[in-house]
Amino acid sequence: MQHDDHIIEDHDRGLAHDLAVMARVMERRRALKWFAGAGTMALVAGCGGETDSSATTTSATPTPTPTATATPTPTPTATSGAGCVLDPTETAGPYPADGTNSSAGSTSNVLTSSGVVRSDIRPSFLTTTTVATGTRVTLTLTVVNVNASCAPLAGYAVYLWHCDRNGNYSLYASGAAESYLRGVQVTDANGQVTFTTIFPACYDGRWPHMHFEVFSSLSAAIGGRYAVLTSQLAMPAALCTTVFADTATYPGSASRFARVSLSSDNIFGDNSAAQVAQQTPTFTGSAAAGYQASAIIGIAR
């Protein structure tokens, strides 16, 4: 066959020819090997995209998605301050009219009423304009932070309320028609609020006192039931004796006051001497001209 003749002829051309043929064969094999390798590399590149020359293989590890964890707001604890102590929490009593109890079967909340933010709390402001009579008192309260060296707290709201000269509370029982001796003020840059009111009467079973609540803001106060402190102020014993001597203005208070003591009072009796001292306002003035009083209210912020 013809192709066999070509093979025979190639084997009969001598050593030089055979060496040349062998060289061409070897060269051809190297070329085929190179093309085979190049094709494999092209295939790899087409499947894997760009790769690093280090040729290290890594497997992807999913990154966990963080979940939100609620962090409880720490409750402030009081530390000693220079010239102030933490006021103790006291009961609001049965007549707060702050939305925490009911009167005549309905919830009484004067804090949500228009006009409750006022300095002079002697007049009623809801259904009547009756003015509570009695010995005039201008009371300035300074709200301070016992955890910051008694620094004043501006922008806090203070709700003050107390009984009238007969021992009755407005919006309740025999005083239900009235809304006097209740009001809210917001502390200024000095942490102070000032109320014009009267000296409270003494009724059976309690030392003469005033109630107050402190709120972190006015909006919290008029929203109701967000007080950061509910407590009371004790009236000074000597001043009670002086004021109640006017039996025409304060009928029955002198005899009732004679039957109570600060140490046996179920509110003030278990407080420390430092707490009672801070809860007792300092008074200047006279019954005839009116009194100016002041007290510090210490809260932990």
UniProtKB/TrEMBL annotation:
<feature type="compositionally biased region" description="Polar residues">
    <location>
        <begin position="99"/>
        <end position="109"/>
    </location>
</feature>
<keyword id="KW-0560">Oxidoreductase</keyword>
<feature type="compositionally biased region" description="Low complexity">
    <location>
        <begin position="53"/>
        <end position="80"/>
    </location>
</feature>
<dbReference type="GO" id="GO:0051213">
    <property type="term" value="F:dioxygenase activity"/>
</dbReference>
<dbReference type="Pfam" id="PF00775">
    <property type="entry name" value="Dioxygenase_C"/>
</dbReference>
<keyword id="KW-0223">Dioxygenase</keyword>
<dbReference type="InterPro" id="IPR000627">
    <property type="entry name" value="Intradiol_dOase_C"/>
</dbReference>
<feature type="region of interest" description="Disordered">
    <location>
        <begin position="49"/>
        <end position="109"/>
    </location>
</feature>
<protein>
    <submittedName>
        <fullName>Intradiol ring-cleavage dioxygenase</fullName>
    </submittedName>
</protein>
<dbReference type="InterPro" id="IPR015889">
    <property type="entry name" value="Intradiol_dOase_core"/>
</dbReference>
<feature type="domain" description="Intradiol ring-cleavage dioxygenases">
    <location>
        <begin position="132"/>
        <end position="206"/>
    </location>
</feature>
